[in-house]
Amino acid sequence: MIRASVVPAVVLGMSLGLAGCGGGGGDSIPNLASSSGGSVNSSAGSGGANANTGSSAQTGNADTGSKPGTAKPAGGGQGGAENTGSTENTGSTGSTGSTGNTGNTGNTGNTGNTGNTGNTGSTGNTDSAGGSGSAGGTGSTGNTGNTGGSSTPDTTCVDISRCLNLSSVNVARYKDNKRAAASYTFDDGYATSPAIATLFERAGLRATFYIVPGLVANTDWTIWQDLSRRGHEIANHSMTHPDFVATPMTDQMLDTEIVQSQRLIEQKVGVRPLTFAFPYHLSTPRAMALAQQSHMAVRMMDNGEPGYRFAFFDTDHGTDLAGTLSTVNRQLDEAVQGNGWFVAGGHGIDGDGWSPVTTDFLQKHLAYAGTYASSLWIDTFANVSRYRLCRDTVKPDVQALSANKASVKLGGAYNAATCTAPMTVTLPVTAMKEGCKLRARGADGSELPVVIQGGVAYFNAKPGETVSVELVAAGK
Ligand SMILES: [Zn+2]
User: Fold this and answer.
1) How close is the Cα of 128 to the center of ligand 1, in Å?
2) Is 1 exposed, middle or buried (0-12, 13-18, 19+ CB in 10 A)?
3) Residue 187 Cα, ligand 1 centroid: separation in angstroms?
4) Mapping DSSP to helix (H, G, I), strand (E, B) and coil, where does residue 347 land?
5) Which DSSP letter does residue 214 get?
6) 247 CB contacts (<8 Å, ≥6 apart)?
7) pLDDT for 411-454, tens place per residue?
8) Cβ–Cβ contacts within 10 Å for residue 443, how many?
């Protein structure tokens, strides 16, 4: 009967060991705690000699603690035979081993079993309790051997290649490994722009304001300076809001509307506008070429990608506000499902400006967007544009530094002037053992947060940076 109870424990232990990324270290976890446990055992060892036999078995088991097995000599009598059963326990790596201990209880060497508890290290301890039932102190001697097992604590998190697929390190599609993105833009610089900004800030978000520096209403620069400082994007919507298709334009006029407008905003706000939006979404090839040449990105109604959705935040393209809300929320669904980019285009709110929406409309939509928090990255048009421009050119280069450490350099043929913001690097997790964690450090030694979600670990780092990724014990 003793054996019968022991065997299952062994099997369980084996499977656990295989699952752990530490490989052979399956038993390691218990060992960690064991050092102290070991001492406990020894004290227990005071028990009867017979049990010792049992200990010999343990020796065999505990790869780690085997040496201590020397205790065997002490062992002897029948108790020993039963102990053999314990041997199997040892075989079970680690924590499982503890389970096996229960079996030990049955052993003559029982007393010794108690000692086993200590061996298992922490995990095992629980079982050990059962072991205490054992009468025989001898067994304990063997336990001492177990103590030896505790000596392997540092083998717990040694092999990073068993935890991560280092050959499949990539840059995520969107920041923080989100599957889709959303940007909210408001045109023409209406008086309610600061109120819109506040609404977004309350949701922890930032918006983009396309202003027209040639319009008197847009020249209260303190408003735009303030919004820029608060993290919103102040971008270029042309100098005077012309219809670029209907208005015949000389090169100089184009330059004024696109390039000089950009410079004026930069001069007044203190931050260079990185993106451009054509008034009425109307452009000519010449105008588009100049806008793209002078800006990082140009806002489009259609960028050619299946998952891209431009959503009109007004009542000119729908029926009423309720109809518009339902339309834009459906467009957001489609963008998320298509791993795409949702770009909203609005103006003012609450009666201000052209075809305005309302505070209530924005709040309801943002609450809806919030339901996609785990899959949707919401940021300014410039920030999402930058990420998209860099994600295909920034290439992570992985080098193994040691068994538990690798470096990830964000290299590649990226545009250094554009790719200045952190990118998200993903590392597929094959098996993360309990008790281990990944630690990432930047070149300056600063720790970078590592998130593990959905079988993928990720961290954010800037192009050009080299990050060291290390597998360490969770407590460290
Ligand atoms: Zn406009």
Assistant:
1) 75
2) exposed
3) 5
4) coil
5) T
6) 253
7) 999 999 999 999 999 999 988 878 889 999 999 999 999 999 98
8) 14
With vertex at residue 121, the alpha carbon angle to CA 116 and CA 124, rounded to the nearest 5 degrees, is 60
Residue type, 253: M
CA of 14 to the centre of ligand 1 (A): 67
Tally of CA atoms within 13 A in the half-sphere of 120 that contains its CB: 31
CA of 87 to the centre of ligand 1 (A): 80
Q: How many angstroms is it from 382 CA to the middle of ligand 1?
A: 18
357 half-sphere exposure, CB direction, 13 A CA radius = 31
> Residue 188: what residue type?
D
> pLDDT tens-digit profile of 206-217?
999 999 999 988
Tokens of 208: 């983009």
Residues 358, 303, 229, 240: is their CA dihedral positive or negative? negative
* CA 217–ligand 1 middle distance (angstroms): 13
Token couple for 245: 């298709």
Sequential DSSP letters for 361-421: HHHHHHHHHHTTTTTEEE--HHHHHHHHHHTTT-EEEEEEEETTEEEEEEESS--TTT--S
- Give the number of residues written for the chain: 476
CA–CA gap between residue 170 and residue 196 (Å, rounded): 36
Whole-angstrom Cα distance, residue 69 to residue 185?
72
Ranges 31-35, 167-171, 256-260, most confident? 256-260
Residue 86: count other Cβ atoms within 10 Å of its Cβ.
Answer: 39
Q: Measured between alpha carbons, how far is residue 439 from residues 205, 211, 408, 435 in Å?
A: 28, 43, 12, 13
What does the alpha-carbon distance between residue 112 and residue 91 come to, in Å, rounded to a whole number? Answer: 17
Give, as one character, the DSSP assignment of residue 1: -
Q: Residues with beta carbon < 5 A to ion ligand 1?
A: 187-188, 279
Distance CA 467, CA 398 (A): 10
Instruction: Give the 3-state secondary structure of residue 464.
Output: coil
Contact 139, 107 (CB under 8 A): yes
Question: How many angstroms does the Cα of residue 181 sit away from the middle of ligand 1?
Answer: 23
